[in-house]
Predict the 3D structure of the following.
Amino acid sequence: MVLCRVYRKTELAIAIPASLVSDIPHLREKTARIGMIGRAAAIFRVNEVIVFPDDPTANQSRDSNLIFTILSYMETPQYLRKYLFKMEPELRYAGILPPLRTLHHPVAKKLRELKVGEFREGVTVSRVKEGVLVDIGVERPFLVENKEIKLNKRVTARITAINPKPEATMMNRKEVPSSWGFQVIASDMPFGQFVKQHGFDLVIATSRLGTPFANIKESILTRWKNAYHVLVAFGAPVRGLYEIAKLENIVLDQMVHFVVNMIPSQGTETVRTEEAVYAALAVLNVATMG
């Protein structure tokens, strides 16, 4: 299957609650659920996954850190994980996580398989007179000239030469003309506060109490076309976004542009957060790409 190289002009973020896995006792099952979120983010070309505290009466730093660590590990190409992650207890069951198979997780492992102009994720491994050497997952590191950058730092590189010596230039991730992974942000601000401070152009809250998507599709698409930074927010296993907003003493409808029911006439009493993520992003993907 050929990977999609479409890169939307709109930056898409999703917000998930820190209590995403609070209803699951075992780390293995927690890891599996978080892995489903990571796969959804990769499939639907999400740029940011924001983890927000959803219960002001509880200390959710442990849950938030677990989600952040596992999603960050998933998003990192396999050949870089040895540099960027230690033997952390949160990653005990990382082996069950599904591979992302995105463009920034390449399968090529040999220098001869690379092409000039190709983008790769790398880590700075040593300094030389000409600049820094960057490991991009092949048998030889690439030289990036005249760059003052810290060692053991993840970077995005564009290959400029392979023979007679491997060379590359540093790039901003946003300069890559295709979907290039997602950033994970663990926010210490509750939902209403980070929505207000980040100034999203379009905020969509998902809720079974919202308006069916079909009824407001055109209004959403009109705003989407002119938006640069879109946020799609999801509720928790034990409380939806209306309840989360009430705990914060805010009115959800006043904080977001749309409250949308993405699964009208659902056949189950509840829809899990990870299920809602797939459903909502699939609907929006079809609608916005049409």
Remarks:
- The chain has a mean pLDDT of 93.
- The radius of gyration is 20 Å.
- DSSP finds eight helices and eleven strands in the chain.
